[in-house]
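Hi Y.,

Following your request, here is the sequence exactly as I used it, all 163 residues.
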Amino acid sequence: MSYLVAALTVLYYLTYPIFYVLHIIISILQVIIAPILHLGHYFVYACWYPFHVLGKFETLYVFFGVAIFVGVLTGTSLHFVSSFTISILRLEAQPEEDERGRTLAKYRAEKLVGGNRTTPENDSALMNGLKDWRWAKEERGRPTKGLIPNTILEEEDSSEGSF
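Below is the corresponding structure, written out as tokens. Let me know if you'd prefer a different format.
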């Protein structure tokens, strides 16, 4: 064992100058890099700050998460229960042929036939109604621009004198 101890002692003294120089270099680098590490610490803190603030609202997240879960579960169960009840009791509304109105096929067939359309030029009663409307608009007696020529009279409240 004495040979092993002697070999390790010789190895220690041979590598001591190398480790001493490395220790000095590392100490100098630590002094130079310290401000950069300090700024990096603040940068990381600034990046994590929003998550820190959001963490304070953890109870609200849990509350709203449970509320959403209960709402979705309740709505889904109500949907399935009501549709099951409707199908069991046969309450589905079957639209009649006349209630549905025009279908796409009927619309296309009418469009192909064409000639039965009523336009204002073809319908004299409709044209007369439009003419009467224009005259009624002009005969209102109000000017189309400017102020109203009449004074607006205020009415007295008759309920004030009865008290």
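DSSP finds four helices and no strands in the chain.

Thanks again,
Q.
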